[in-house]
Amino acid sequence: MKVARFHSPGDIRIEDIAEPEPEPEPEPEPEPEPGPGEVKIRVGNCSTCGTDVKIFRHGHHHIGPPRVMGHEIAGEIAEVGDGVTDWRPGDRVQVIAAILCGRCEECRRGRMTVCPNQESMGYHYDGGFAEYTVVPAKVLAVDGLNEIPGGLGFAEASVAEPLACVLNGQELARIGDGDEVVITGAGPIGCLHVRLARSRGAARVFLADLNADRLAMSTDRVRPDVTIQGADLVDDVLKLTDGRGAAEQGVTVRIRAGDGAPVPAASMLAVLSLGAGHGAEVTLQADGEGSESALDALAALLARDLDAEEPENA
Question: For residue 160, which of 311, 12, 44, 27 has the smallest C-alpha distance?
Answer without folding.
Answer: 44
